[in-house]
Write a structure and sequence with these properties.
It is built from 8 helices and 7 strands. It is α/β, with parallel strands linked by helices. The chain binds 6-chloroguanine. This is tRNA (guanine-N(1)-)-methyltransferase.
């Protein structure tokens, strides 16, 4: 997969050199390039923002540097069709595990990191010809810019690419893979500071262990995220789940 990120703080994205995603880049599974928006300015002060029409607080990102940067990303695209352009914004659609899976199927993703009060809206209209433009939010709170959101989204998508996570089975039993939160996990010692572990986990009875974990997933989800239970497809929950 090819990923391009445009930002006025390219150093923010240095974390993508580390850990699993850094390894995926080294292994050639992910071709990730970060671009400095300021290198697409043409004035002496490398200006990327200006005051908002209509007044109000804060600054707005000027359209022309964005058009030049995004044109360059589009020109270099290896994709057949329009690449997906994610525009991180608290005013976007909420990013989910399902969205991560869908994005992991794409050959080319681009991210446009806004700062200040956002990017001149006309850029998104203009970019529609070159990209499948999607404003996306991490959730209902406000960050200062899109960079931290891109770190989260690239990690969530990148770990789904074939070969990035060593044991693909670990993608199956994690939170949100089946619409529920994951079950609690324990490791040695079995007695730690006076606390034991659920005895079923020592039973060697795999059917009972599976049922215990399923019950815990349901109990946890009901307690912490009841909203997720509403969204489950009909028939997902067994009688045993409902009794848990
Ligand atoms: Cl994607 N961007 C910004 N600036 N703030 C956010 C966000 C994104 N998601 C939640 N808050």
């Amino acid at each position: 997969m090819r990923i391009d990120v445009v930002s006025i703080f390219p150093e923010y994205l240095a974390a993508l050199d580390l850990s699993l995603i850094g390894k995926a880049r080294q292994d050639g599974l992910l071709d990730l390039r970060v671009h400095d928006l300021r290198s697409y300015t043409t004035d002496r002060h490398r200006t990327v923002d200006d005051t908002p029409y209509g007044g109000g607080a804060g600054m707005v990102m000027k359209p022309e540097p964005w058009a030049l940067a995004l044109q360059s990303v589009s020109d270099a695209s290896p994709a057949d069709g329009r690449p997906v352009l994610i525009v991180p914004s608290p005013a976007g659609a909420v990013f989910t595990q399902q969205m991560a899976h869908e994005l992991a199927e794409e050959s080319h993703l681009a991210f446009a990191c806004g700062r200040y009060e956002g990017i001149d809206e006309r850029v998104l209209e203009w970019a529609d010809e070159l990209f499948d433009v999607r404003p996306v939010s991490l959730g209902d709170y406000v960050l200062n810019g899109g960079e931290v959101a891109v770190l989260a989204m690239v990690e969530a998508v990148g770990r789904l690419l074939p070969g990035v996570v060593g044991n693909p089975a670990s993608l199956v039993e994690e939170s949100h893979s089946d619409g529920l939160l994951e079950y609690p996990v324990y490791t040695k010692p079995s007695d730690w500071r006076g606390r034991g572990i659920p005895e079923v986990l020592l039973s060697g009875n795999h059917a009972r262990i599976a049922q215990f974990r399923r019950d815990e997933q349901f109990r946890r989800t009901a307690q912490r995220r009841p909203d997720l239970l509403e969204g489950l497809p009909a028939g997902t929950l067994s009688k045993a789940d409902l009794a848990a």
